[in-house]
Amino acid sequence: MGRTITNVYSRSGNLRSTTDALGHTTSYDYDLRGQLRSVKDANGKVTGFDYDDNGNVTSVTDALGNVTTYTYNTNGDKLTETRQMTVANGQVRELLTTWTYDENGQMKTMTDAENHTTTYEYDKLGHQTAVIDALQHKTEYKYDRSVGCNDLRR
């Protein structure tokens, strides 16, 4: 016996609602620019979204009131993500993730909320050649002109 999920779309193609096989409906609301503004789950819990003038998400407020904010550079690349979370004792914990980019706009580093940094390396053609994780484990990528990435080494 199959399970049916029903999706309803607006005339502009935006997903308006999803109803699962148990009849639980999640609804989606958009602004005039077609940007998702809120999601209401089957329990009536709402997650809200805010945007800058370039259409980048600047904040997300989840159903529990936890706020995640984002900043971007002039190219629209994400620079920071700050998550504010209420923990068990009621205190608010702030978790910061940061990104840096090279002069070509390629991600150079990502530092997570625990201050673990991942580094990315590229060749002259812009192909990613290596990822170095916080423990300094290096994954290398080798390219062949005819097939693209053809070798992965750890």
Question: Can you give a write-up of this model?
Answer:
- Helix content is 0%, strand content 55%.
- It is mainly β and 154 residues long.
Which helices and strands occur, and which strands form pairs?
Elements: E1 6-9, E2 15-19, E3 25-30, E4 36-40, E5 46-51, E6 57-61, E7 67-72, E8 78-86, E9 92-101, E10 107-111, E11 117-122, E12 128-132, E13 138-144, E14 148-153
Antiparallel strand pairs: 1-2, 2-3, 3-4, 4-5, 5-6, 6-7, 7-8, 8-9, 9-10, 10-11, 11-12, 12-13, 13-14
* CATH architecture level-2 label of the largest domain: Beta Barrel
Q: What's the story with the biggest beta sheet? A: 14 strands, antiparallel
Structural class: mainly beta
Classify the beta-strand content into a percent band: over 45%
What percent of residues adopt helix (DSSP H or I)?
A: under 10%
The strand line-up of the biggest sheet is: 1-2-3-4-5-6-7-8-9-10-11-12-13-14
Q: What best-fitting shape do the alpha-carbon axes yield?
A: extended
* CATH class category of the largest domain: Mainly Beta
Tally of distinct domains: 2
Instruction: List segments where confidence is low: pLDDT < 50 over at least 5 consecutive residues.
Output: none
Order of helices and strands: EEEEEEEEEEEEEE
Number of helices: 0
Q: What does the average pLDDT come to?
A: 92
Give the N-to-C terminal Cα separation: 45 Å
- What is the CATH third-level topology name of the largest domain? Lipocalin
Pfam families: TEN_YD-shell
Domain Teneurin-like YD-shell: 23-145
Keywords: Repeat
Protein name: Teneurin-like YD-shell domain-containing protein
